[in-house]
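Quality-control log, excerpt.
Job 1 of 2 completed; input and output follow.
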Amino acid sequence: MDWSIQEIARIAGTTSRTLRHYDEIGLLKPSRIAHNGYRHYDQQSLVQLQRILLLRELGLGLSGIAEVLGNESDAATALSSHLKWLRQEQDRLNRQIMSVQNTIEAVKEGAELMAENMFDGFDHTQYKEEVEERWGKDAYASSDAWWRGMDGAEKTAWKQRSQQLGSDWIRAAGKGLAPGSDEAQDLARRQVEWLRGIPGTPAAAPGGDVKGYVLGLGEMYVADPRFSANYGGESGAAFVRDALRVYAEANL
């Protein structure tokens, strides 16, 4: 069984033009071309498209997505990591929905608004307890103040820098480089410099245990799917961890 490009575009909520572009750049090839020139897609193609759309939700660009798909050939394993992230997002969105519903009901009934219940699931403080447990309350307070103090352009620039670093790691892992190679070690240096630029982290604090912090983060990148997704999955995150370990042992 297969589906035409128009059917897939409608089902997936995308456009035929987008699917043709994915074909042109080698991201999603049709399973067959009909005699009339129309592209058709089978079930395997649908799985590939689902993975592409999920990776786009994670903020990866098309080049980064291509590298992830190339490195993670086992679709079931890769989708399991995506599923963990989706469930976390589902929980956050459910909390947002409940908050808004409660606010609507309170406004309609003229009831008193409960401020502590109105913003559940909305801001970037969702990792507050985790950060404080790992690195202390001062670490969270400093990084939170730093983030809130930036304007929109500064936040966008910082996010772009982070995404570029993630894409560069994925590209390097896709090449099969050794963690101790010059290119991998240059990326590790950039990663540590990036971490040093975030106030409140041990990497930025005077006298902080930078080496221990970097080594611990490397392990967390592999263990936590929220972070491994930034590096193309568990195998990509393992490459980052190993490169950071080599760099930390030699330079920190």
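Job 2 of 2 completed; input and output follow.
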Amino acid sequence: MQALTILAPAKVNLYLAVGPRRPDGYHELVTVFQSLELCDVVSLAPNAPFSVVYEPDLGIAQGEDLVSVASAALAERLGREVQGAFTVHKRIPPAGGLGGGSADAAAAMVGLCALWGVPTDDPNVTDVARAVGADVAFFLEGGTALYVGRGDTLARRLPNPELDVVVVNPGEPVPTAAAYAAFDRLLSVPVPPVEPLVDALANASRDIGGLLFDSLTEASAGLVPSVGDALAFLRSEPGVLGAEMAGSGSTVFALCADAEVAEAVADRARAGGWWAAATRTSSAGARIVVSPDYGA
């Protein structure tokens, strides 16, 4: 088999309600995941010993990154020999709430499934994905979906909105554990119901922007004030339909009236010293592409 190119999409949470801590230490979540066209690009050379290289290097110890963990776990579950040289071309800001590491893990699993002739919806594959990371299973299919549990259990697929999006990363990470710990110290955060967002998605309504919600925003902005600064910037920009934090941060995102608005907002964010990208919502998860025409 020839080398494979696999796209690993970023995600945002259109809705993230954090509930009480569970006996296993995780919090009960209700979240609406949305995949984006912004992606990492994972190359797999199948006829080579197993290895993983990140460009640029993330400084993660060999074997501890999620691509390595997912590949080894899938090989063990399927009784296979882990194989292939992976190169992960990073475009998604790491540790920013956009799910890049989980998407890369899902991309590796998609590539190995292609090598081994295993469908990605095989229960063994989805079980491994859920064990590797709470949102890895989502990235096997992508699109728009309501997940519950610790964010790893699919409740229902939702219609995919066609929206222009700008993502902004202020450059300071928010450790996930710290964000949840700060959330636990806050007084109860009012949680709107998810049903109005689900209805807006079903009706392709532009009201989606006003229904974005993330329970962790206050906690994360308290830890890293630039999260609040970036959100305030997005919410003040003309043509922005709504803005919220992605996951536990520190990346924030905005739904925009059109592509021109998204590009203009991204340009102004970069001029202010932040990393930013204009992108669109996507109906796809990690996927193999024959001709890698995925932009600059």
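Post-run check on job 2. The two ends are 26 Å apart (CA to CA).
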